[in-house]
Amino acid sequence: MTAATDLEFAGLTALVTGGGAGIGAATIEALRTRGAATAALDLDPSGAPAGAVQIQVDVTDSAAVQAAVDRAAAELGGIDIVINNAGIGAQGQVEANDDAEWARVLDVNVVSVARVTTAALPHLRRSQAAAVVNTASIASMLGLPERVLYSASKGAVQAMTLAMAADWVAEGIRVNAVVPGTANTPWIGRLLEKAEDPAAERAALNARQPHGRLVEPEEVAEAHCYLASPRNRSTTGVLLPIDGGMTSLRTRS
Ligand code: NAD
After folding, report:
1. Are 80 and 12 in contact (CB under 8 A)?
2. Ketoreductase domain spans which residues (predicted)?
3. DSSP for 143-174?
């Protein structure tokens, strides 16, 4: 049972892009449990937790994003929190992705952060608890093989997070990012399914993590909540890894 004192988001509203699955859906669940009214903006929002407003939208379509954000604000009664979480992968060395693929992935992973945040900005400016939380990735902090485009996109998300935080710190709009390690979401499920032996591949993936397992989406959701919480009004410009120590630890000396 949730204690009343845990309802730290009571009276607050949040929109979550990519809220129809994986980390985004877990974040909606965590925000709702703590009292927020939520909207899931997704290509397919039908997988969002019950009670969230479901809004079908492609975050690369500016006009559709504006309409979706307006609808979320109308149905929720404003927007205090924006979780920019929709994202897609890209594999390969630098020559693997052509101009069209670069444009597509950067549009979904990077430009959408600017697009959604800009559409929500008038609402954030009216909020007393305004917070933006972006979902980055450890891919941009490690030299991962065959992830040039994806790593570039998530490095841009980190840089934007810091720059937006600087722009808005004086007016009280906080901007932070979670930096997940490999997380146990449908995305990773789809990648594992392509392997010759998915069970063996999953075991190998687990073994590559310092803490011996994938990060659970609920653990990333906890970080989204921490960074969005009105209890943490001094937390801005933070890039918070949730990665079992992948970016900070060496398990052998
Ligand atoms: P997922 O594929 O399981 O879910 C992503 C959701 O985003 C889906 O519901 C999808 O429909 C939606 N989406 C994708 N493109 C969209 C678009 N153009 N418009 C609207 N919605 C769109 O992914 P996930 O693993 O939950 O990843 C969420 C975020 O976390 C992404 O930004 C991803 O880069 C990041 N991330 C994931 C991992 C991981 O290992 N899973 C690690 C680090 C960072």
Report:
1. yes
2. 12-194
3. T-TTBHHHHHHHHHHHHHHHHHHHHHGGGT-E
Give residue-wise pLDDT tens across range 39-52.
999 999 999 999 99
Does the CB atom of residue 45 touch ligand 1 within 6 A? no
Query: Residue 168 and residue 242: Cα distance in Å, rounded?
Result: 25
Residue range 203-216, pLDDT digits in tens? 999 999 999 999 99
183 lines ligand 1 (CB under 6 A): yes
Is 150 in the active site?
A: yes
**Nearest atom, ligand 1, residue 59 CA:** 19
Contacts of 189 (CB under 8 A, 6+ apart): none
The one catalytic residue in 116, 141, 150, 179 is 150
pLDDT tens per residue across span 164-202 = 999 999 999 999 999 999 999 999 999 999 999 999 999
Atom index in ligand 1 nearest the CA of residue 20 equals 9
Closest C-alpha residue for ligand 1 atom 24: 22
